[in-house]
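Researcher: Going back to the complex we discussed earlier. I've cleaned up the inputs and rechecked each line, so this should be the final set. Can you rerun the prediction on the complete assembly and write out the structure?
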Amino acid sequence: MLIHEYQARDLFREYGIPVTEGKVFESLEGVEEYATELGQCVVKAQVHAGGRGKGGGVKFAPTVEKAIEHATNILGMQLITHQTTAEGCKGNKILLCPGLDIAKEYYLALTIDRATQCPFIIASTEGGMDIEEVAESTPEKITKIKVDPSAGCWAYHGRKVADALGFEGKQARIVAAVAQNLYKMFIEKDCSIVEINPLVVTEDNEIYAIDGKVNFDSNALYRQKDIVELRDPLEEEPLEVEASEHDLAYIKLDGNVACMVNGAGLAMATMDMIQISGGSPANFLDVGGTATPARVEQAFRILLKDPNVEGILINVFGGIVRCDLVAEGVIEAVKNIGNIEQPIVIRLSGTNSTEGKKLLAESDLTFETADSLNEAAAKIVAAVKK
Amino acid sequence: MAILVTEKTRVVVQGITGSQGAFHTGLMKEYMDNFVVAGVTPGKGGQDLEGTPVYNSVAEAVKEQQVNTSVIFVPPPFAADAILEAVDAELDLVICITEGIPVLDMMKVKHAMKDSKTRLIGPNCPGVITPGIGKIGIMPADIHMPGKIGIISRSGTLTYEAVDQITKAGLGESTCVGIGGDPINGTQHIDVVKMFAEDPQTEGIVLIGEIGGDAEEQAALWIKENYDKPVVGFIAGLTAPPGKRMGHAGAIVGGGDRTGAEKVQYLKDCGIKMVQSPSDIGEAMKSFFS
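Model: Rerun complete. Updated structure for the full complex:
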């Protein structure tokens, strides 16, 4: 689960990581007053997508007039970045904070390394940049420091970070503390990634975390009630929100062939086969191990709400889930929803698949059936192209 | 001979009185008599679940029923605790079916297990079955057939897909191991490959992986250098957009990872016969034995 920059800054403040002051606005009301107070300031769109600066969502304002102009533009704009869809996303909130005179920018982050199964602190002198680009072109400018999770993050880890970034004296002590506090936050809040980009030194030698990205482990949200409060439903795909309310793992994609599958691995393989057969998957959907008629119907309704969907592929390998029950669910769902215009291809295999296929054949609804995933993918792609 | 699950296996079900635990205990017992010999639910010791005695702790189940293997069905907030309790009781094998355990919990568990003798499979996995010997987990038993192919997979239904074809191809399975879809899990592909390499019953391996991480690559490299029997591979999620979590928390391409296509190429270069569709696994393996 992602949060906004201003929310990340609040968390940093809570953990003793220095951030500048700032205020969030949802309209122009109060912007003039606060901009006057700040003098020169920065106006920043509050959206979850990265690449805001390049997309025009972050603007420096040397005067109050400019601040109001930028605030007006950003509040109304569709922000398009490399992480948004082609139509972009709407910035419903802006953050105003002081426009600092920055001497140097750094990068500091924490995440879990899969290979060693340990948290790693990642530090770089190349702050403010896309860190994956830095990793690609100049890997020597990135320092990775492993932390043993049973021992935790000690002062020397902090000193290593400060050292790697070239800090000395009082500044080194501040940066070391930032690293340790960031680790504390990472563990206590069940983060999957915490990133300060950039961490800056100003012309008058002050250190601030200017921008932050924080992602939380969705498995741990049950014990992070205050974090769940920070969720912004406007930032999430409405169909994904609806699916999660019904406990369905659904991710919307850009294609036109919807799929409903049991199991995450098989769902991914089904998406792959749709693509290999010349189609394009409209979604990922795992109906899970309990594909009851009610769940199948709910899943159907969500799939059909995507206006791009031109065909539906159902791929179920019955295990504990019985194919005859899935077939009943599909027949019931189609009857209840009524009038589905898109072609449907169903592939049932495994437990009670013969009974399931028989039920489908006996129903007065029009389905195509398939025996293998290859055949099913080919059939639905052909049907959509007709 | 098979691996992990053998004639010597004595199973305790942790979370046996929960709905999932009770349901699957029934199916496991139906598959093989005298295989599941105990259950554990703290506070419910002394009960009897359709002939299976329930104990308050794993240690008690060890003492009373000489269990050496546990399967865990407890809900995510209590699953790490259940694993550590089983490790503390010095079981040989712990199979954790539970899906949705916080990553930081699993990180602590893994580090706490560093010097233990216990092997952990999962979490978020279908379990392990040695056809004809015993089933520990939630897989449908009737698609399996005792035989010579070892199967390793991160995913449940994809494993069933492979098993079904291997059975229909007449080859049968030695042992099928679902290692789970989480980013931090107890046992990796390479660990299971090494066990299959030592097992005289296993004459070929099906390796099913997903995008994200490099566990499949590590296994492939070991196979290239050490294993000369047939290996058929499949990687799911090639068309998944980067940065999107496709159900399995582990199935996400992060910084520094190979893309799905690069992963497939790497496995091919290590001599693994890669198939484009899971429907082709059976035929691909059969071609080695005809």
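Model: Worth noting: Residues 72 and 96 of chain B are 5 Å apart (CA to CA).
Researcher: Good, that matches what I expected from the previous run.
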